[in-house]
Amino acid sequence: MNPGRFVNGDFVLTDDQRNGLNFRFAPEPNGPLHIGHVKTFRTNFNCAVDNDGLMILRFDDTNPETASALYCCDAEEMLQWLGYDIGDFLTTFTSDYFEELLEYARTMIKSGLAYVCHEDSVGSAAASPWRDRPIEENIREFERMIDRAYPKGQAVLRLRYEDKHFKDPVAYRIKQGTHFKTKDKWVVYPTYDFSHPIVDSLETIAVSICTSEFAHHRDLYNWIQDRLDLPLVPQQEQPRLAIENVLLSKRKLISLHSRGLLRDMADPRLATLAGLRSRGIPPSAIQKFVAQGFREFSHLLDITRRELLPGAKAYKMVLDPLCCQVINYSDLKKHNGNPQEPLIKPYFFISGLDFVDEDTPEGSPSRFLSRNRPASLFGLPYRITVRNVERRDGKVQALAVTLTPNKKSSHIRSLVWVPDPCSATLVYVNQVFKGSDQEPAPLLYAPVFVEPEFFSPVKTGRRFIYGQTFRAVNIGYVTVSNRSRRHDILLNVTCFLKHKREYLKKILKCFTDMP
Question: How do the domains of the chain map onto residue ranges?
């Protein structure tokens, strides 16, 4: 059976005959969707669209101990945020088929293809001592499992199947906990290996597209469908999305959260879809990153810059704020007939990164402001010249400056400045997970001054809406954190501009591990 093939990352059907043109995305609702899920989802979705088929969102809720309605809602929300209309999908749950799956399990037992075992695991050398028990006894023991005669771990239903990868894999096991959909109706639950091929067939899936770690499950998948005389569904694998130093394992993410190392699954350091949204990565950038087959997070940030450039409104913001007192402000105001040109107040703030506390002759190639080198002001027709430097304990505290009509020069730097500023906190987000424990890099914080106009469109608390991403002039793109409050604005660094390495190092030195 020819299932089709991947061509430049897109899956192309090649069979002339199909049992159906349905495609499915089947996440287990035991953790958040991450960027790796987007690759699998869009492959199936594009196949459905290209072949006028039905897209099925199927939640594989076969483990009541880990499956949660919360993760189902999260998945639906994230898919809608990516731009998909889930109203066009058929949403199903594996639990919708629990009755049918039980009947198929009974069929396997009656055909001598499954048996009840009282060991959790079967060694690679020795066979289960219950492998050859009579069919009638297996039927009776399976019904006892269903009727709650055995506690967890004391009985499983195994398939009488063996290959180089599997030896009598488990088809049903006893689980504890209340299922979020079926409540306490069941205590036995099918495994993914048993339910997956059956439900795929029942939903007339055209091709079971999965990731490459399931390649060795293919023979078992086909065997179950064949032995139950179900319509055969071909399986095709594609490589998982792997990004260097980025953690995508749901199990590890949940472990980190339980240890208190993550605030939640929307932590902006994560490559969960909720985390990427919190950071301000737009859905279009995620889609293009996955479609183009990139595997480095830096490529996602490059795409993000291009996607945000046309629409992100620019505001002035300064790191390491340095006060500049305009000592000739009265003369400016007196002699300038245009009341809009003088600054609102006789002082303003620049970034301390833009001032070099050393004597540097005018005309030198460096573009930083210094005692003997002037600069221009961004958006204003003034040149700024330092007249005096105020220090405290050896650190520059303020500058006394004069402003004069600007003479354009390619050798002077245009400084970002903020009058009458408001304060906020910039949060540096590093998505790198390193070490054997793969712990996240700490969030780092830096105080910033922003122009007052920045706050007018910001919604915080319950009024906060995602997508509030802005361009901080000469810094980068920032997104309002959902942890912000009306008088405590946190701004996640979505991505910096393409700074020179030395200047980026200066920016990062402004951040500390305390907010």
Answer: 5-238, 244-316+420-515, 322-415
